[in-house]
Amino acid sequence: MHSAMKNALIPTIIACLLWTLNPANAHADSWLFGMAAGPSARPSGDLDVHLKANTVAAGRFFGGLRLGNWSFEAAVFGSDLTSRNGDHKRTHIAIGGDVRRFMPVARRTELFVRFGLDYNTLGGKPQTELSGFGGPGVHYGAGVQTSFGVSGGAVKLYVELGQQRLRLHKTGFKSLDGAFTTMTFGIVLSKDWHRPRTRRMPLLKM
């Protein structure tokens, strides 16, 4: 299942990017806030050597602004993991920013692709060699979203397949390169935002 998710992710994103070449109806500008959850992130690469997923869900909180078929978001996300040496609980936390591109496919349904940059840390108790690792990462994903209109805004539900690639550093230790693959289910609350109109000065009559 995990390998199939990873193999399907890149073709899905490429297909969605190609879709952006087609014209799409613009969405109303709006503020947005959302949260998402799913099974714990699946590590790969060096991270898989030291960490394993457990049954605790991964989480994501984000907020931002949508302009037409683009959104710009700040996000905090992470997952609880378990070290393979000693079964100690580890916590992965990331803070970053996203850009999402939406492609309407029906009246209330749209596809989207997402790309972002982030900074990551590994923590948890007791302190072990994995504690204190941190470093930059990139994350990307693709999904489908449906909306339900409410007065002055909307409630939206989505599902997304995503991947995060990162390199973690710690003084005196070898860097850890790897990736996390996730499937998340989210809800977004949006409030319409209207740009202020520029008022023209009346012409003076002579």
In short:
With 206 residues, the protein is mostly beta strands. It has one domain: Porin (Beta Barrel). It has helices spanning 2-19, 46-50; strands at 30-38, 42-45, 51-53, 58-67, 70-83, 89-104, 109-123, 134-150, 153-168, 176-192.
General description of the model:
With 206 residues, the protein is mainly β. The protein has a single domain, classed as Porin (Beta Barrel). Helix content is 11%, strand content 59%. It has helices at residues 2-19, 46-50; strands spanning 30-38, 42-45, 51-53, 58-67, 70-83, 89-104, 109-123, 134-150, 153-168, 176-192. The chain has an eight-stranded antiparallel β-barrel with strand order 1-4-5-6-7-8-9-10. The chain starts with a helix and ends in a 14-residue tail after the last strand.
How are the SSEs placed, and which strands pair?
Elements: H1 2-19, E1 30-38, E2 42-45, H2 46-50, E3 51-53, E4 58-67, E5 70-83, E6 89-104, E7 109-123, E8 134-150, E9 153-168, E10 176-192
- Tally of separate domains: 1
Number of strands: 10
Number of H- or I-type helical stretches: 2
Give the H and E element order: HEEHEEEEEEEE
Backbone shape: elongated
How big a fraction of the residues is strand?
over 45%
- CATH topology, which one? Porin
Strand order of the largest sheet: 1-4-5-6-7-8-9-10
Q: Label the structural class.
A: mainly beta
Q: Termini distance?
A: 78 Å
Mean pLDDT across the residues is 80
**Text of the CATH class:** Mainly Beta
CATH 2nd-level architecture: Beta Barrel
Tell me the Rg in angstroms. Answer: 20 Å
Low-confidence stretches: 1-6
Q: What does the largest sheet look like?
A: 8 strands, antiparallel, barrel
